[in-house]
Write a structure and sequence with these properties.
globular; 7 helices; alpha/beta
Length: about 220
Amino acid sequence: MSLREYPDVEMMMIDVANKLAGELTAALEHEERVLFVVPGGTTPGPIFDDLCEADLDWSRVDVLLSDERWLPEVHVRSNTRLIRERLLVGRAAKARYLPLYAGGHSPEEALAELEVNIVPNLPIGVCLLGMGSDMHTASLFPGADRLEEALDKHAPILMPMRAEGAPEPRITLTAHVLNEALAKHVVITGQQKRAAYERALTLPAADAPIRAVLDGATVHWAQD
């Protein structure tokens, strides 16, 4: 893994958007389609604002969230809502979106249905991740009910997840699926998350789940 530091957040967001666009373009030179995994939350929004107008063949890009809250996409806390408003617009509106939510079911009931659309598109070509100050990534939370299973190298593609402090159930890509991405980036801002990242490097993945997905990753950091 490597750490790249930036003088300010705006410069970091522009640079990361450019790198992602370049990696997607390069992948499409060798593959018919590319799977692009992205995070929810507020941090990646400015990256999406720049990336959505990148001049590449978006019709051959499959967009998949790293994790999702088990909520309808119109809900204000839905990660899908963010993606539809800030990434799947402009040129990127031509991309194919692979959902991680199926209304009317629990996460456990919908796993097989959701995996059908994902498995044929693996491995992940380009992956963008975030990290919380608790060292979680995707919905791999320290202390979550099925974290140990989700960190196992033989875990299924998707895992339901429930954690203290998370108001609703989650569904997440498991650690080995994220870690096997061909190009991987983690974006963090602020001194608190920088300290959390450095602490994670000294801990096992069970205590710092971000640790399980850092192989070959570029971590991008700027002070907020």
